[in-house]
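Q: Sequence in, structure out?
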Amino acid sequence: MEKPKVLVVDDDRDIVEIIEVTLQDEFSVLKAYTGKDALSLIKKTPPDIIILDYILPDIDGPSICKILRQDIFTLYTPILMLTGKGEIENKVYGLESGADDYMVKPFSPSELLARVRMLIRRAHIQLDANPLTRLPGNVSITKELEKRMQNREKFAVLYLDIDNFKALNDYYGFERGNEAIKMLARILLEATQKHESKHSFIGHIGGDDFVIITLPEKAEIIAQEVINQFDKISPQFFDEKDREKGYIETLDRTGKKREFKFLTLSIGITDNVNREFQHVAEISFRGTELKEYAKKFPHSKYVIDRRTSK
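A: Exactly. Output:
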């Protein structure tokens, strides 16, 4: 079984060595001595948890936290902040910047190990994260919808998936498919951050299926933004020779050979503005139904439920 990955970010090499010795039996330890190196390493090899020094020679710990919390792939990665300063204001600032826990140097190695174990355990319990995108999975999506229903909030739900995804996966391999999924996840985050970040929730149902929960008045704006951005980058998932042709040729689900054009998006949107859902399954059924209708069109499309009466 592969060990969980811990990234240790500290410019004090002695501290890094102590942490490595403390954790290496249970964890695979990655090391960085500057903020810039840490951010670069995180993009290449996403860790399961980050141990981050408050003061670094280039970018301070809280600033790194803020950067990571703006990225879809590190939004939920546990961060343990380390510092030589014990002042309350530094602790508060570190936590408000996005750190999950805080320890003051010098620290007890056994306590550090216990904190790391606790943070990873808590992350697994609280978030059934998709391993590819690090987005909340089905359990978290259901809980979020139930919470909004219980609070009698008005919300819209966008159900999204990628058209022609299986053909791309079969033709180029799963790594190309994973690139498309990760790119869509990033587009979803950017669209919600641009138009409605405070009240929006992004979940990864699985495969190429995603969900966005947002305010009803923002649903179409976000859907159009996502489509615009995805359509711009869609051709890049084809090799140059196939981009020039505008299609790839592979087997469909029935085993027949046919042409598949660039990836497109299908989005179904439903809301509770003029209705009251009794169960999450009702929302999922209606959203999926609308998404399947959107798939009948040859281009990226969103279909919204225009129900006007209860």
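Residues 5-126 form a domain with the Rossmann fold fold (CATH 3.40.50.2300).
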